[in-house]
Design brief:
heterodimer, A: alpha/beta, FAD/NAD(P)-binding domain, D-Amino Acid Oxidase, Chain A, domain 2, 2 domains, eight-stranded mixed beta sheet, six-stranded mixed beta sheet, 10 helices
Chain lengths: ~425, ~900
């Protein structure tokens, strides 16, 4: 891998950039056999392949992607990164990722633009305040930063925010995680792809999985694809909303429901919004990209669907909320509106797990919040695949928890009001 | 009309766009590009314009950035400014980026700015953010209004050019309800720049305007097609008016459900890709023609037309007829190549080459005719799959979409001579493809060399097609270049998704009236005004406003709540419980339905009696609770939590309709029908007795947990004997219309008994002293009935209820968090809700958290409820509540602090 650096950029500038090669190798077809096949070339799958090669020295790895890498939720989300989750298991998982974000650009030699500009979650009623305080206390004990801001402090941290009396739901305060922020989503996929490829991982695009082969004992023996059959003893499925479909090929049923989730951006403007602001109660979140676009997201559509376009009313409700919180943005304009399919588990926590099928592993259920976990998810899933045993951090996120009832319910954070 | 641009005054004619007026005034430099800050004039004459973006300032909060000068209509007194330049449009320091361009290839930011760790966010990113962006966001809350309308029609015609007008006229003549919308200020489309068409256009429009079944919407962009022929239209109502009527909204969102949609969105001309193709004065041929013929604003005196199809000849003819000298028509089909242009703020020369012979032609206008791209955006949003038409060099509609047709140029229907294929590209030097984002042909080729082979990857890596014009003029050229670089065909490269909106839509338009109190309906009870008059402080609970406490002079919340609590314990208090959800469950199988939905057993509950019901989700965790009264064998009056009312009914209906359709049971929400007044305290009976028209409400006839139907001062009443306070209590249900009057009557009686009003905060304290849980506070979606001490409520003999099977899972027993009480050593110390609890100060493993904590108004010490791992096994143990920098020792107790025997309930 040719290293990226300012010096090289300057040298190439003088020679018309003729020396840049492909950022990752793109074999047309897979080899006949690999040690591990990862199904799904999004951020999580590519990160898994990278860490398999980097930390576990398993380099005969293929990432099989039906379309183009990073083309699913990796390239469709609103790029928010935070780790101030309520449950100790979740905080551990997301904070593991947060620590990797800090040095990820250097590690991958690819600027993923991790920008810890602060994520502020607003509280609008007494119940919100109680929930926020519970998060803050739990996070502090777990060593995860999260602090309470009064409305005035929230306004000072984010001057465009409306905390005035004209709000339907007043801002009663906010929970701030300063290490939270954003990153550049495409760069995460490409950076992992480039670094994994350099370590020997094959990235096969436009290659759909058509079957999972099992041996007489029921263990995984291979993957059937539109570009030929691959012999392998280990398959990791990381296919977001379509994970159920792939796992169904091995007879494994997953407790997932798929919903459309929309996002939108405004036209680019000069810096006008310094941090990330989220409101669960009035369902909206907003940050400003480096390009200048306001990046805005909302809750999921109401019904399960595989349609990547949601209803107009979702976008209008989201902008209702944004215009309440930042009324000066009413004159901004929506430039682009799109949807993705998110895979939700019953407890709104991910599944990073072995399965009952020997050699078959699954990483899914990230729902509306998977981007932030990309490096940590890949890192822990690689460990799980390499050792045939979960890492202590992801052990609670097993598929078995839906049998035992030991759920990790982050929806608890949005528990019903009294 | 007079207007200013960057402070300089100019004159305009009625009907001018800002771009037309500036051109007529000889102003061609209108903007700076995004990345390199290159000087730019207009490229186009319509909504596809990438370059000439301006800010219109109507004073105060009414400043709008990023508007296209080619769309903005000039009004008298308009103040327009250029943007993305410092200090001025002519001399922009940002143009240093242009000098550094050799070192700023696509994706340069992915390859550097990585050292040292953390410097990206602190050092590099702020610099890049300041350089990026286009206009300045408004900094004051918008004072304009926006409205929304919903409409239905037989035929919605999108685009009022020749094809759309013909379709609308025919549909209207056939008696259909027609809506015709067009993004421009005038109807006519391409006919507007064809003087010969004026008379026919006028006649067609006159007929349509005279037809009462036709709705004509100009300045209205169809920006998106959604499921089942729902079309979003954005109508600009006042932006073109010098002094708009304040009664008018600025913009209006139409959501139109159309039986049939006719898309007649036309086609957009493509620029040519050659070195230096971005200087002011270089524009699309059709744009030059429109400025000259429609606006009488010749975009130059001395023009060179460069063309890849026969459009060039027509453009040259029309420009010449308008008095523009045509220096040369360069037809690329004849082997010419453009080698470059010169001129800093306006084009002055164009260089061409053929067979080695080079020539420089002086000019002040270059008209580019690179062929036409049908506007298939809406067709594609409606799930149509286009095909590539090689002769046209563009995608055209292919698969059928039900109840939608494309007509005219957007269907690929245009003169054969206008079919340019993909025009040849001269990619040496800097030949721009995406003008706003400064993406050159070389950038696209570099991206393919770096392994970005899908058009989606190339788009994201180079940002081509991602500017505010969303690639309307650039996408096909980019596809052609990428296909060429990869040796593939355009269909193999694919097509990026056409996302909504077609052109940007104002946030305010989409939000409409939804601001302040109209953001979400404010629900108030029939007694709300009485609470306001009593000085209540309110809190938001869901969409409801609930009275939290009633402070008297100089009282803070703490003092008011303490007084209200003592009042309930000592005499009597009244409380507005109307917001609780109420569902009437009726039918022969009502008890069986209740058995399946709630954990409790209902079969043997006698009519006239109440029971505290607990409902689980399928996971076996507590979802809702409330008192249920059985009014008759086939009739239950169910109450839910305030926040859970809608969710519980929805869940019940889901089961009734999909799982148990055989049950004879009907569900009706009656939350809005009843006003509910809780009267609680030792003197509650005394307070109510004179009001219930002789009803015997003695403890013997009406014990705790009973319900009776009667009258209240002659009004229909359901009277519940229930308590959430720990005192003897009643809940008076009267029809909502009588709530106000009943409240006043009870209030007088309560006052006479030394009682008064209490709010939700006192209610919380009273119930916490009694150890009653609140769903959503003690529970959080992870608590089983046993966890919160409600295992007794489970009907053990029932074959099934929602969540029963989940309760048998292995993880549902064993060391789980359980509801307990906490006492502090210092009775004045009030714990903090949400605080975490550990075994010792050395051990950071959380055992649980404080769910409720209060001063304990009437028990003489502070109280807290908590969920603690194996809590019931730890009674008497000392644990640590972990606070910032310290810990508070607490003793684990039973969760009931007041009247544990329950004697007061039965009084």
């Amino acid at each position: 891998m040719d290293r990226f650096s300012l010096a090289r950029l300057l040298r190439q500038g003088f020679s018309g950039h003729s020396g840049w090669g492909a950022q990752w190798r793109a074999p047309e077809a897979p080899l006949a056999a690999y040690d591990v096949v990862i199904v799904g070339g999004g951020g999580h799958g590519l990160a898994t392949a990278y860490y398999l090669a980097r930390e576990h020295n398993i380099r005969r790895v293929a990432v099989i992607e039906r379309g183009w890498i990073g083309g699913g939720n990796t390239g469709r989300n609103t790029t928010i990164i935070r780790s101030n989750y309520l449950m100790p298991e979740s905080a551990g998982l997301y904070d593991h990722s947060m620590k990797l974000w800090r040095t990820l650009s250097r590690e991958l030699n690819y600027n993923v633009m991790y920008s810890p500009r602060g994520v502020m979650m607003l509280a609008h009623n007494v119940h919100d305040v109680q929930v926020s305080m519970r998060h803050i206390h739990a996070n502090r004990l777990a060593g995860v930063d999260n602090e309470w801001l009064t409305p005035a402090q929230a306004k000072a941290f984010c001057p465009p925010l409306n905390i005035g009396g004209d709000l339907r739901y007043p801002v009663l305060g906010a929970a701030l995680q300063r290490r939270g922020g954003t990153a550049r989503h495409d760069a995460v996929a490409w950076g992992f792809a480039r670094a994994a490829s350099a370590l020997g991982v094959d990235i096969i695009q436009n290659c759909a999985v058509t079957g999972l082969a099992r041996d007489a004992a029921g263990a995984i023996s291979g993957v059937e694809t539109t570009r030929g059959n691959i012999a392998t003893r280990k398959v990791g499925v990381v296919a977001a909303g379509h994970t159920s479909v792939v796992m169904g090929m091995a007879g494994v049923r997953l407790p997932l429901e798929s919903y459309p989730l929309q996002a939108l951006v405004s036209e680019p403007v000069k810096p006008a919004f310094p941090c990330v602001v989220m409101s669960n109660t009035i369902h909206a979140y907003i940050s400003q990209s480096d390009k200048g676009e306001m990046v805005i997201g909302a809750g999921t559509d109401a019904y399960v669907s595989y349609s990547q376009t949601g209803g107009l009313h979702i976008a209008t409700q989201t902008l209702d909320a944004i215009c309440e919180l930042v009324p000066q943005f009413r004159r901004l304009r929506m430039l682009r509106n799109w949807g993705g399919i998110v895979d939700l588990s019953p407890d709104r926590s991910p599944i990073l797990s072995k399965t009952d099928v020997p050699g078959l592993y699954v990483n899914c259920g990230w729902g509306t919040g998977g981007f932030k976990a990309t490096p940590g998810s890949g890192n822990l899933f690689a460990h799980t695949v390499a050792h045939d045993e979960p890492h202590p951090i992801n052990a609670p996120f097993s598929l078995a928890r839906f049998d035992t009832g030991r759920l990790i319910d982050e929806a608890a954070a949005a528990a019903v009001a009294h | 009309m007079k207007f200013t641009f960057d402070g300089r005054p100019y004159e305009a004619r009625r009907g001018d766009t800002l771009a037309a007026a500036l051109i007529r005034n000889g102003v061609h430099l209108m903007g700076r590009s995004f990345k390199y800050h290159r000087p730019r004039g207009v490229l186009a004459a319509g909504a596809e314009e990438p370059n000439a973006l301006v800010e219109i300032d109507r004073g105060g909060a009414r400043r709008t950035p990023n508007l296209r000068a080619t769309v903005v209509e000039v009004f008298d007194g308009m103040v327009a400014r250029s943007q993305n330049r410092t200090p001025s449009l002519r001399f922009d320091v940002g143009a240093v980026n242009d000098l550094l361009a050799p070192f700023l290839p696509p994706g340069f930011y992915y390859k550097t700015f990585m050292w040292p760790i953390g410097a990206w966010a602190k050092l590099y990113e702020p610099l890049i953010r300041r350089a990026a962006g286009l206009g300045r966001a408004p900094d004051l809350p918008d004072t304009d209004r926006y409205t929304q309308r919903f409409a239905h029609c037989d035929v919605l015609v999108i685009g009022a050019g020749p094809a759309g007008l013909a379709a609308a006229a025919e549909a209207a003549a056939a008696g259909m309800r027609v809506m015709l919308c067009d993004e421009q200020a005038e109807f006519g489309g391409s006919l507007l720049s064809d003087p010969a068409a004026a008379a026919g256009l006028h006649e067609t429009l006159a007929a349509l305007f005279a037809n009462p079944r036709a709705t004509m919407l100009c300045r209205t962009t169809a920006f998106g097609i959604y499921g089942d022929n729902l079309v979003g239209l954005a109508e600009r109502v006042t932006d073109h008016l010098p002094d708009p009527d304040p009664a008018l909204p600025r913009e209006r969102l139409w959501q139109v459900r159309a039986k049939r949609i006719v898309v007649a969105a036309g086609a957009i001309e493509r620029p040519l890709v050659f070195p230096g193709n971005d200087r002011p004065g270089i524009m699309l041929g059709d744009a030059a023609r429109i400025f000259a013929t429609r606006y009488g604003a010749n975009p130059g005196r001395n023009a060179v037309v460069v063309t890849a199809c026969d459009t060039g000849a027509d453009v040259a003819r029309d420009l010449a007829a308008s008095g523009v000298r045509i220096a040369r028509v360069i037809d690329l089909r004849e082997g010419f190549r453009v080698t470059g242009t010169s001129g800093r703020l306006r084009v002055s020369f164009i260089g061409i080459e053929r067979g080695g012979a080079r020539e420089k032609i002086p000019c002040d206008l270059v008209a580019m005719c690179g062929g036409w791209t049908p506007s298939i955006h809406l067709y594609s949003q409606a799930r149509g799959k286009p095909r590539f038409d090689a002769a046209l060099g563009a995608f055209v509609p292919d698969t059928e979409v039900s109840n939608l047709i494309c007509v005219g140029a957007c269907a690929g229907d245009m003169p054969g001579a206008y079919r340019a294929g993909i025009a040849p590209v001269s990619s040496e030097g800097r030949a721009f493809v995406d003008f706003q984002n400064d993406v050159t042909a070389k950038d696209l080729e570099l991206a393919t060399r770096e392994g970005f082979r899908s058009i989606e990857h190339v788009k994201r890596y180079t940002t081509t097609g991602m500017a505010t014009d969303q690639g309307k003029t650039s996408n096909i050229n980019a596809l052609g270049i990428v296909a060429g670089a990869l040796g593939a065909t355009i269909p193999e490269i694919g097509l990026t998704t056409f996302r909504t909106p077609y052109t940007p839509v104002t946030f305010g338009t989409l939000a409409g009236h939804s601001r302040g109190d109209l953001f979400d309906p404010v629900r108030t009870t029939p007694m709300h005004q009485l609470a306001v008059a009593a000085g209540a402080v309110f809190e938001d609970v869901g969409t409801w406003k609930r009275a939290r406490y009633f402070p008297r002079a100089a009282e803070d919340m703490h003092m008011a709540v303490a007084r209200e609590c003592r009042m309930v314990r000592d005499s009597v208090g009244m409380f507005d419980a109307t917001t609780l959800g109420e569902i009437e469950v009726v039918g022969a199988d009502a008890a069986e339905f209740m058995n399946r939905v709630y954990i409790n057993a209902w079969t043997r509950l006698a009519p006239g009696r109440c029971r505290y019901g607990v409902m689980l989700g399928e996971n076996g965790f507590v979802m809702d609770d409330g008192v249920v009264g059985r009014l008759a064998p086939d009739r239950f009056h169910v109450t839910t939590t305030t926040g859970g009312a809608a969710r519980v009914l929805a869940a019940m209906e889901d089961y009734r309709q999909t799982e148990w359709p055989e049950l004879r049971v009907w569900l009706t929400s009656v939350s809005e029908q009843w006003a509910v007044i809780a009267v609680q305290g030792p003197r509650a009976r005394e307070a109510l007795l004179p009001l219930v028209d002789g009803l015997d409400i003695s403890a013997a006839v009406m014990p705790h947990m009973s319900v009776v139907e009667g009258t209240f001062l002659g009004i229909e009443m359901r009277l519940f004997r229930v308590s959430f306070s720990g005192e003897m209590g009643f809940e008076v249900n009267v029809p909502a219309d009588y709530g106000h009057a009943a409240w006043e009557a009870i209030s007088a009686r309560v006052g006479a008994c030394q009682g008064g009003l209490y709010g939700t905060e006192a209610m919380h304290v009273l119930r916490a002293e009694k150890g009653f849980i609140i769903v959503g506070q003690e529970t959080d979606g992870t608590a089983t009935p046993d966890d919160v001490g409600l295992a007794w409520a489970i009907g053990k003999a029932k074959p099934d209820f929602i969540g029963k099977r989940s309760l048998t899972r292995s993880g549902m027993s064993g060391p789980r968090r359980q509801l307990v009480g906490l006492r502090t050593d210092d009775p004045a110390t009030v714990l903090e809700e949400g605080a975490q609890i550990t075994a010792t100060t050395d051990d950071n493993r959380p055992l649980g958290h404080v769910t409720s904590a209060y001063g304990g108004a009437t028990v003489g010490h502070s109280i807290a409820l908590a969920m603690i791992e194996s809590g019931r096994d730890r009674l008497g143990a000392t644990l640590q509540v972990r606070m910032p920098g310290r810990a508070i020792a607490v003793r684990v107790t039973a969760p009931v602090f007041y009247d544990p025997e329950g004697a007061r309930l039965d009084a």
